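Example for tutorial group B:
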């Protein structure tokens, strides 16, 4: 009896040990994925193991973390919202447990309808040639983050800040100029380097900063623009009320 119990006990241990192991693929993976500009996509990481593996995501060798505001790491995948052109690349889900690790690889392709030729126009004086040297068709500029441009009337108190976005794509790559009340802003007024030219940062707002701010985006094919109305609210102090130290009312 004791001998049979011992054999049963050893068998249970052997069975449980055979079930434990490194992460493994639990479902079919389509390694080449495509998504349209501005849409949402979810890349799955269908792995299993015992113990359950922990996962982390990387893009082009860089670890994706909470600072990537449009990216969200889920239990079974990676969700990317409001996809931008720069989101194209190689994505890796790395699953790890005490027995080992494995990678699930994806290549993400971002489709820009504006560059597909549907909205392309032949520029004047081009003699019918409407492709660049790489063979890619010219395309009018288009805003790539329209969801972040819905609020066009913005009120802010004195001393605060505001960011106005006009991120766009096109071919050739468009340029952008910023205007306030139809007058171009100087480089000193814009105050940001070229890498951040698609966002206008207005800091330490003053009443005279109120006005209409327009981004004008253009290339040799066409032009688009968007206007924000910024209202800087003054701080008033009721008569007969004292103010706290350091607070100025106007």
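The residue assignment follows.
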């Amino acid at each position: 009896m004791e001998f049979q119990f011992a054999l049963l006990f050893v068998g249970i241990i052997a069975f449980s040990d055979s079930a434990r192991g490194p992460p493994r693929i639990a479902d079919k993976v389509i390694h080449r994925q495509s998504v349209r500009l501005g849409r949402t996509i979810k890349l799955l990481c269908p792995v299993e193991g015992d113990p359950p593996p922990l996962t982390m995501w990387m893009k082009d060798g860089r670890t994706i973390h909470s600072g990537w505001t449009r990216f969200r790491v889920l239990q079974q995948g990676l969700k990317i919202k409001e996809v931008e052109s720069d989101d194209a690349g190689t994505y890796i889900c790395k699953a790890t447990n005490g027995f080992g690790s494995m990678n699930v690889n994806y290549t993400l392709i971002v489709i820009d309808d504006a560059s597909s030729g549907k909205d392309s126009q032949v520029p004047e004086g081009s003699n019918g040639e409407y492709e660049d040297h790489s063979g890619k068709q010219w395309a009018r500029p288009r805003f790539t983050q329209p969801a972040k441009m819905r609020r066009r009337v913005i009120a802010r108190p004195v001393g605060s800040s505001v960011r106005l976005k006009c991120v766009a794509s096109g071919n050739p790559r468009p340029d952008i100029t910023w205007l306030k009340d139809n007058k171009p802003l100087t480089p000193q007024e814009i105050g940001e380097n070229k890498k951040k030219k698609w966002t206008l940062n207005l800091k330490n707002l003053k009443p005279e900063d109120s006005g209409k701010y327009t981004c004008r985006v253009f290339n040799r094919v066409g032009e688009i623009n968007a206007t924000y109305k910024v209202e800087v609210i003054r701080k008033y102090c009721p008569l007969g009320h004292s103010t706290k130290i350091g607070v100025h009312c106007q």
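The mean pLDDT is 79. Compare this with the pattern of hydrophobic and polar residues in the output above.
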